[in-house]
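Supplementary notes for students who missed Thursday's class. We covered one full example, reproduced here. Read the sequence, then the structure, then the short commentary at the end.
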Amino acid sequence: MGAGPAGASLAAWLSEDGWDCVLVDKAHFPRRKPCAGCFAPKSFPSLRRLGLEEIVKTGQRIRFLELRVPGRAVRLDTGRNPLGGDFWVFPRERFDALLVDTARKRGARVFEGVEIQSLQRRGGRVVGATARDFSFRSEVTVIATGANLRFLPAEHKMRVRRYQALIGWFDECSHLDPSTTDAFCAPWLPGNAWIFPESEGRANVGIMVHAENLRRSGGNVRRLFDAYCAETGTALRLSGARRPERLWGCPIQYAARPVGICGDGFLSIGEASLLTHPMTGEGISHALRSAEAAAQTLTRARETGTYGGEALLEYDRRIRSIWARNFRKACLLRRVLDSPNLMKGLIGLANRVGWVAGMVETHLDRFAL
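Structure (token representation):
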């Protein structure tokens, strides 16, 4: 259920392994998807196994991160992380369509424009799903519905934390360094903002504000977006650019502790399992890697011939082993980003003391990837 990066990649891997997979999504592909479209180094092993690595690398390579607060900035070399890879920006509209096509070519049956209304249950076990006009029966139902948490088990609803993002695509950007992305925070922006050069002359511009901070600041995310675009450094980068006619809003949902949500006959992957990164909101690599963990769990369960809750608990153990330490560190660093004055001091220190910036560069994967 859901043909985004998590659902489509899982369908591709399982279909290739001989599973009979049905991939269902309410959208028709290609679709516009409000997302920064950034692929972190940790996503590329999964992309390689999907046969999509080289296609994504036809996008925009991002080698430097400029971390900014009003009046100060430090430039970080993202290629110095231990993974040895750069960030790449590739439009989600194209990527999602390519991934769905990959799943289809590997044998998955794809149903576009079909919205799941409810899960089918028998004696407490999930045995399929129901859409408006027909239903699906399955040995295992995988929930990959992204930010739509209507199927999130009740016991996990209290764990949900939320950002509100607002994104727009600016064209005719003639003052951008295409190798550099921008990360920004300020006292009047209770969150963070970015500029991702998506292609020559085009930039993905957005802000991400924690729901609690947004309420305290008056709840007007459009006002905060306009203030970011008017900030001196941002205005210089976007000077002469054609502003978008429409901005796209979307929630980004996560939990402070990673859990592989699963039960009798079902499991959830990607953002549907609240696995978005707590600090950056990055979700593509997390979607792909959680799908791999799910594929490994389901392959093992098939060997035993059972898909009950106990058999699928291996998925939760895999998820915790992948992200538990990373999420703890990210939540701590999130507090630093929520304190622009502290960020200003740290940026000043990094500019004065070279090894501080170097330490951030070489440890970036532990916090933000």
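Commentary. The longest strand covers residues 161-171. The chain has twelve helices and 18 strands. If anything here is unclear, bring it to office hours.
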